[in-house]
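Aggregate trends can hide what the representation actually does to any particular protein. The sequence in question and its structure tokens are set out directly beneath this paragraph.
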Amino acid sequence: MSAHDDERYDADTAPREVQIPSGPAVIHADLTVPDASTGIVVFAHGSGSGRHSRRNRQVASALQTERLATLLVDLLTEDEASRDERTAELRFDIELLARRVVDAIDWIAREPAIRDLTVGIFGASTGAAAALFAAVHRPGRVRAVVSRGGRPDLAAPVLAKVEAPTMLIVGGDDTDVLALNENAFAQLRCESVLEIVPGASHLFEEPGALEAVAELAGAWFTGHLDPTLGQPGVEP
């Protein structure tokens, strides 16, 4: 972040809760910006999860140690989340979820202190499909995507259009989701990799499984969100 930023975020305090307009709705997010951040990762949750997800907060904490800012977003409002708990329908409304991720990316572009940071998206479950749709809608902004136990198959209409380097992470014991990811991976035309965490189930609850996810995601994002990448005359 440059010296002329209008606002500063103190990474030594608790995450700052922010509100993001999305059409007639307002969604909530937790923003953490370490000193000298080299990029920002938007977390797109799915399947009934949100910004308070223990698993995604653990991954976010690991990314922050790599000097990556994080924005953990509730893609549903409180009323929508309550409705989804009863019907489980909105978590599969990929168009709605993708629109919310795009709105979060656009919000970042309006915030003086973080607008110049390169953007990545970390999607979990159905949020992974929303992340891929958002990457297609904002190809100039999104520089990398990571899916954890995701449903990239739900983004089938746009998989061949994704330009952002994409990593799909799946548990080795999550056989059904692994098959869906293998099919989606075959449709990607961008730089991409399918990483399988041996012995891990869908929620990566086994010892060391989530740490493996954080390590893989951290390496992918730091390797692709470095603002000097692609600049002539600058060593990678």
Remarks:
- Confidence is low (pLDDT under 50) at residues 1-13, 231-236.
- Residues 16-225 form a domain with the Rossmann fold fold (CATH 3.40.50.1820).
